[in-house]
UniProtKB/TrEMBL annotation:
Pfam families: CarboxypepD_reg, F5_F8_type_C, Peptidase_M14. It comes from Alectura lathami (Australian brush turkey). Residues 1-32 form the signal peptide. This is Inactive carboxypeptidase-like protein X2. Gene3D superfamilies: Carboxypeptidase-like, regulatory domain (2.60.40.1120), Galactose-binding domain-like (2.60.120.260), Zn peptidases (3.40.630.10).
Length: 731
């Protein structure tokens, strides 16, 4: 017992000595870096220990063996010296030779991205040798990540090394054995600086200590990097390499800049049933849908397939053509396709206004397949939705832009290739600015030109042929005016949030300011209905996509408080039609790899359905005359809400409202005004609130006079003639 206690005492003293030595070492390191960088530098060191100090079950742990070579580079470890490193069979095969005697690498397997852009790779899996500051740390080295407006903050546009020398590196821990096949790189996203890497080495490891460089017959392979900062550059490895860690070591960079990179790694994770971390994060779907990216012809064929499966509830039509003549196809889903049913609300989803934001397009194509299958299977929820709603799905508003992005591929289009139409117009912000007309009229109360608070007419200048308006935009406007939509969502990408109007700030001197509509509470509920049922939008643990953290508003944001935009589709829809429209940003990655589509569908499926169901919230009814005929264009007003709507051609209307008691009025030109109290409950289903209004006495007189070929004399003209007679009599 005494011996044991002495041994334990010695062991404790040794541990204390080692701890003290470690703290002294960290202190020395902190003194070696600038004060501004100390916290982040130490964080990088401490974070690394958690992942490589202890091996996963089944993995061998190797002591630190890397040594600097003659030029200070990491000496590649031979595979046979490290049994934990498993080269693939293709690595061991001799390379084929061409007729000219040059070696030709074998065709690499089609492995997907590991997920730096989609955030599947967490910040804790990214490490770097040094960093200029926290905002340029390894966690910012993600493909297509965007910098904040104000640089030198926490949200910059790349990983940037703290020093410019060939010993810097950025490393990805895949947390399991992975067959690495390629690397995609970009420079730093910045308005003010130009930084990118022009060449680099790739190294792999199974323990993050002993590294093996990618080699060919001549030695270490030096991969060609970027020639500017935004266009992604793909380099495939000569042969796939199996390891857990991969490291990028910049060798040269833009001479007027510094070492800065954004990247994505291509790799196929190998099966590992013992890896709990991987099994916990696996996402599968049971839906039998076509999970792939569809070009224009494939999209059209898929629509035909859905229509053939469900001919009684679907109809394919087009709303116009793109600049290059491609038809803008839509699918209608209803129990009576092609016909507006009195009392049945109309809903729309559109996607692809920005052609490179592809996820929304594929989600709509998946949604139409899902609804057809579930209707045939007798799913009561879907059957009820289809029987009570007329649904329109327009998956590709900008097919010309999509074609450009599709040809580049899911990871190589950058942030903006295909965003605009063929003639360079951003459809999403190409609508008439009706906000300014409304606000100017409200601010100048004595103005001769009065602007209504709804159905504001489009200005004449916008309708002229010389106006800068895309043909796709004109087609959408005509579609919106033809069909009495009640609720709509336009699916976009690059973020994970639901934005609601107004999208334009009222003040001329601000670029960000919360600018609510009169229906702000309704819009906030609609936004929350989608965000709260999405798998990730309201998850407080998730990382922000780029620079904005929307968790304080539960995954929703007022468009103007985010960034002001004039002429948005949301504001136009609200001020020119009855339709309440929101922008739904469905993912951080605008163009995710095909392998990500099943998980993205699971993330959004319930939200897509719940949002459609909200079209049945509020009040609905028909405005009739005393003979029972519907009155078109009647105005429906809600007391306390300075925004009206109008009835359709059959006299029916739908007014989105949150639960509560409302005083509602119906009026039309030549008719008396009728008012009643309507109560909206919490249960799904709009409250019926019909109106019967009669003609005014003046309207009746006019009708009788017209019937007998006479026109009633106006009161002002009658008075003028009477005064003229009196004047003649006095003379």
């Amino acid at each position: 017992m005494i011996a044991l206690s002495k041994k334990g005492s010695c062991s404790s003293q040794l541990c204390l000595a080692l701890c003290a030595f470690g703290l002294a070492l960290l202190g020395g390191l902190s003194r070696a870096v600038p004060m501004d960088d100390q916290d982040y530098y130490l964080q990088e060191i401490s974070n690394r220990d958690h992942y490589y100090s202890f091996p996963y079950p089944g993995e061998e742990y190797f002591p630190f063996t890397e040594q600097p070579g003659e030029e200070g580079t990491i000496r590649a470890a031979e595979p046979e010296e490290h049994p934990g490193f498993k080269p693939s069979r293709k690595e061991l095969k001799p390379k084929k030779s061409s007729k000219k005697g040059k070696s030709i690498p074998e065709t690499p397997p089609d492995c997907p991205p590991l997920g730096l852009e989609t955030l599947k790779i967490t910040d804790f899996q990214l490490h770097a040798s040094t960093a200029k500051r926290y905002g340029l740390g390894a966690h910012r080295g993600r493909l297509n990540i965007q910098a904040g407006v104000n640089e030198n903050d926490f949200y910059d546009g790349a990983w940037c090394a703290g020093r410019n020398d060939p010993f810097q590196w950025i490393e990805v821990d895949a947390r399991r054995l992975t067959k690495f096949t390629g690397v995609i790189t970009q420079g730093r996203n910045s308005l003010w600086s130009s930084n990118w890497v022009t060449s680099y080495r790739v190294l792999v490891s199974n323990d993050s200590h002993a590294w093996t460089a990618v080699r060919n017959e001549s030695g270490d392979v030096i991969f060609e990097g970027n020639s500017e900062k935004e266009i992604p550059v793909l380099n495939m490895l000569p042969v796939p390499l199996v390891a857990r860690y991969i490291r990028i070591n910049p060798r040269s960079w833009f001479e007027e800049g510094s070492i800065c990179m954004r990247l994505e790694i291509l790799g196929c994770p190998l099966p590992d049933p013992n890896n709990y971390y991987h099994r916990r994060n696996e996402m599968t779907t049971t839906d039998n849908l076509d999970f792939k990216h569809h070009n224009y012809k494939e999209m059209r064929q898929l629509m035909k397939t859905v229509n053939k499966m469900c001919p009684n509830i679907t109809r394919i039509y087009n709303i116009g053509k793109s600049h290059q003549g491609l038809k803008l196809y839509a699918v209608e889903i209803s129990d009576n396709p092609g016909e507006h049913e009195v009392g049945e609300p109309e809903f729309r989803y559109i996607a692809g206004a920005h052609g490179n934001e592809v996820l929304g397009r594929e989600l709509i194509l998946l949604l139409m397949q899902f609804m057809c299958q579930e209707y045939l299977a007798g799913n009561p929820r879907i059957v009820h939705l289809i029987e009570e709603t007329r649904i329109h799905l327009l998956p590709s508003v900008n097919p010309d832009g999509y074609d450009k992005a599709y040809k580049a591929g899911s990871e190589l289009g950058g942030w903006s290739l295909g965003r605009w139409t063929q003639d360079g117009i951003d459809i999403n912000n190409n609508f008439p600015d009706l906000n300014s007309l409304l606000w100017e009229s409200e601010d100048q109360k004595k103005s001769k030109r009065k602007v209504p608070n709804h159905h504001i007419p489009i200005p004449d200048w916008y309708l002229s042929e010389n106006a800068t308006v895309a043909v796709e935009t004109r087609a959408i406007i005509a579609w919106m005016e033809k069909i009495p939509f009640v609720l709509g969502g336009n699916l976009q990408g690059g973020e994970l949030v639901v934005a609601y109007p107004y999208d334009m700030v009222r003040s001329l001197w601000k670029t960000q300011d919360y600018t609510p509509t009169p229906d702000d509470h309704v819009f906030r509920w609609l936004a929350y209905s989608y965000a709260s049922t999405h798998r990730l939008m309201t998850d407080a643990r998730r990382r922000a996509c780029h620079t904005e953290d929307f968790q304080k508003e539960d995954g929703t944001v007022n468009g103007a408080s985010w960034h002001t935009v004039a002429g948005s589709i949301n504001d136009f829809s609200y001020l020119h039609t009855n339709c309440f429209e929101l922008s739904i940003y469905v993912g951080c990655d605008k163009y995710p790899h095909e392998s990500e589509l099943p998980e993205e569908w699971e993330n959004n499926r319930e939200s897509l359905i719940v949002f459609m169901e909200q079209v049945h919230r509020g009040i609905k009814g028909i405005v009739k005359d005393v003979h029972g005929r519907g009155i078109p264009n009647a105005i429906i007003s809600v007391e306390g809400v300075n925004h009206d709507i109008r009835t359709g051609s059959d006299g029916d209307y739908w007014r989105l409202l949150n639960p509560g008691e409302y005083v509602v009025s119906a009026k039309a030109e030549g008719y008396t005004t009728a008012t009643k109290t309507c109560e909206v409950g919490y249960d799904m289903g709009a409250t019926r609130c019909d109106f019967t209004i009669s003609k005014t006495n003046l309207a009746r007189i006019k009708e009788i006079m017209r019937k007998f070929g006479k026109q009633p004399m106006s009161l002002s003209l009658r008075r003028l003639r009477q005064r003229a007679r009196q004047w003649r009599q006095r003379r």
